[in-house]
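Whiteboard transcription, Tuesday session. T.W. wrote the structure tokens on the left side:
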């Protein structure tokens, strides 16, 4: 997983508290979603003429 933004062990631990298991492909899928979310937030931030991403950008 290149440029990982999520910690697979933390995801696995959280899912375990929910009574489910994690597939090996889940971390990559989550990483892609997080990257897309951050890219969209950065674009919104720039669109509002700011250089700081804020919660409302998400």
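and on the right, the sequence the group agreed on:
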């Amino acid at each position: 997983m290149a440029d990982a933004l999520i910690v697979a062990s933390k995801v696995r631990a959280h899912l375990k508290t929910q009574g489910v298991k994690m597939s090996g492909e889940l971390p990559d899928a989550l990483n892609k979603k997080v990257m897309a979310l951050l890219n969209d937030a950065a674009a919104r931030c720039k669109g509002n003429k700011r250089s700081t991403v804020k919660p409302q950008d998400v």
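Someone added at the bottom: The helical segments are 8-17, 26-47.
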